[in-house]
Specification:
This protein is of the alpha/beta class and about 120 residues long. It has one domain: Nucleotidyltransferase, domain 5 (2-Layer Sandwich), CATH 3.30.420. It has 3 helices and 5 strands, in the order H-E-E-E-H-E-H-E. A 5-stranded mixed β-sheet has the order 3-2-1-4-5, covered by helices on one side. Helix 3 links the parallel strand 4 and strand 5. The radius of gyration is 24 Å and the shape is elongated.
């Protein structure tokens, strides 16, 4: 009866060769799965067209541009998901329609993890 040990050694060697041939992904961006989660602090202020993004007050157009940049900079290549969380605060007197529109915009660009702090 032939010995099974050479077959086992051959199978192990082939398995190691297959693992070593996989190499690294051809993508030049870092693997974002291990990157820290980006936290976006966002507030709808109590006056029209006024928002605060990470401490800076701005209007809706600039806010949308900034949020698009954040989404693109934190988009995972393999899954196309954005590796970020939005912490949304609504100030007293803020227009609820602006809050809802902002939430919809965030989701539309991939910032779908929104925590509401009202």
């Amino acid at each position: 009866m032939p010995c099974a040990l050479p077959r086992l050694a051959l199978a192990a060697a082939l398995g190691l060769m297959a693992l070593s041939l996989q190499g690294c992904p051809d993508d030049s961006r870092e693997d974002q799965d291990s990157a820290p989660l980006v936290v976006v602090n966002l507030a709808v202020l109590g006056r029209p067209d006024a928002y605060r993004l990470n401490g800076t007050v701005m209007g809706q157009m600039k806010l949308h541009d900034q949020l698009r940049t954040i989404a693109e900079d934190n988009r995972q290549l393999k899954t196309d998901l954005v590796h970020a969380v939005v912490r949304l605060h609504t100030e007293s007197g803020a227009d609820y329609d602006e809050v809802r529109d902002l939430q919809d915009f965030c989701v539309s660009i991939g910032l779908s993890h929104i925590e509401n702090d009202q």
